Amino acid sequence: MEQEPEQRDWPRLRDDIRSCWRCSLSETRRHALPGEGPTDARALLVAQAPGAFEDAAGRMFVGPTGDLLNQLLNHAGLSMDAFYRTNLVKCHLPKNRRPRVAEIRACATHLDDELALLRPLAICTMGLCAARAVLARIEGTLLDRPALRALRGRVLTFERVRFVALDHPAAALHDPSRRDRLFHDYLTLRELLDP
Questions:
Q1: Mean pLDDT estimate for the chain
Q2: CATH number assigned to the domain comprising residue 151
Q3: Global pTM?
Q4: Would you state the pLDDT for residue 1?
Q5: What is the per-residue pLDDT for 144?
Q6: Exposure winner among 12, 93, 101, 166, fewest CB in 10 A?
Q7: Measured CA distances, 87 to 61, 134, 194, 195 (Å)
Q8: Measured between alpha carbons, how far is 20 from 15 in angstroms, rounded to an integer?
Q9: pLDDT of residue 195
Q10: Edge to edge, what strands does the sheet with 43-47 contain?
Q11: Greatest CA separation for the chain
């Protein structure tokens, strides 16, 4: 019988994620990636899923995406150490496709446990899928794509949690014309972390 989130601890949660077989992604991944970063952080970054570099390395935000994320955070006067970092889906998605509903549901318990253990005061989601899933958890709202796009870069407050939805850094790697906007939008993280 699984323990309630408040009774679990970080090592147990990480072990559960690494050994997870709840969906078919477990058949194609190299690593299921638990979150990384300070477990006493008050800020959380949530991306969609590990990329190919992350799956190969067994670490979050390595390779070109990690390099660009570091540049974005440095531009905002921040570092990775300010955040606990995790993914909505813990396994690499073949061909970097969007996660399917069943895959998001299979990983939902892991994200819920991370939220319960961390109790963040500030959450930044990177990408529409992550934004939609996290908003559903903290606000109970299931927004459509146009509504989510309209929220991009705006700091919102839900009870005690501040929230911002940003584009994932990989967006600028696929479309370099989005790079300047990304650097501008990531400045919002200073507002997010400075209540």
A1: 88
A2: 3.40.470.10
A3: 0.88
A4: 39
A5: 73
A6: 101
A7: 10, 11, 24, 24
A8: 8
A9: 63
A10: 84-87, 43-47, 122-126, 161-166, 156-158
A11: 50
Binning pLDDT at 50, 70 and 90, where does residue 8 land? Answer: low
Q: Which residues pair with 158 in a beta bridge?
A: 161
Structural domain contains residue 147: yes
Position 14 in a domain: yes
Residue 87's SS3 state is strand
In a domain, 1, yes or no: no
Buried b (16+ CB within 10 A) or exposed e, 112-136: ebbbebbebebbbbbbbbbbbbbbe
The count of structural domains within the chain is 1
CB 155 within 8 A of CB 191: yes
Q: What is the dihedral of CA 49, 53, 58, 59, to 10 degrees?
A: -70
- DSSP letters, 91-131, are SPPGGGPPPPHHHHHHHHHHHHHHHHHH--SEEEEESHHHH
Domain residues for the domain of 172 are 7-193
Domain-embedded: residue 176: yes
